[in-house]
Write the structure tokens for this entry.
Amino acid sequence: MDRILSFPASLGERSNPYFATLESGLARFGYALENYRPLKSNPPASVLHIHWIERMYQSGPARRTGVLSYLGYRQLLGACRRVKERGGRVVWTAHNLAPHDGVPPAHRAGFQKYAPKIMSEVDAVICMSASIEDEIRAGAPEVAHAQFVVAPHPHYRDVYTEWRPRERILADLGLDADARLATMLGYVRRYKGVIEFLKSFQAVRQPDEFALVAGLCRDEGLKAQIEAAAAEAGVLFVNEALSDEDLTSYYKASNLSVFNFSNILNSGSVVTALSLDAPCLAPAKGAIGELAAQVGPDWLQTFDGPLTPERLRAALDHSRAHAPTGRPDLALNEPVAVARAHLDAYGLAPKEDEAV
């Protein structure tokens, strides 16, 4: 049996949609994903697929103390070497080149010692765009020897299927039916540049335009800043974890979904917005430029440098004048095709009698 262990993974009914989509796609070819469990016994595997190395200290038992995450990283390095000794492959998906929020001091020793060693064991790198291969090689020289396989981020059109009508969303927010929404959705974190977005928006907003920040913010200082901005006209803040229906409804109601990442290699959030037919504005970083060329400027506008009031105003005006119809072209992001590319990285052939 070809066992594929994934770290991290959240498989099953309440899975992260990225893993659920990949799991479903691989199943079409006769393969299953299993969780790699830190600080626990794991079965022998043909493939160990690592996504975010920093998740060792962000979730699970290893997050409790630096000692546990140190041991967790040491165990993960040993698991990589055992897979290779058995003729298997270690695969890394380059979601990002560094943790977005930095490494907490308590966990820094284990991360700094073991992350480079784990990366040096990688046999194949999955990158979500051919355009970022050189950036990955420069930012992670430990994987320069590895095979590079392009597997775009899968779309979520089959995941988020229920939403409330736009008029109801606007009414629930206390807005008129003809209001225009610029949204920033999902967990609220500093690297997403929400304060800079709100300052630019308030400098150029028109009377019928509103900025909606919706998602849980655990950073008390950042939350206070957003609440202060929301005390002024035109800014709405929904500080709560969003259900799938909430997230889908807000994207469906959005005239422009704004992303202002300080650093980014790929963005599942942008793909999520496009999956739900929300026009987007995002920085021209990492894989975003290639995705913009794929779907066109009416669906995905990009910008260089900081998100200035002038650049945001231009994007808002473009979204008024060129509201797209239909759906963006996400053919390259079809989940089954993405799963097939993963098999190339795994060194596994489709089980043709089980593939659809």
User: Anything to note?
Assistant: The two ends are 20 Å apart (CA to CA).
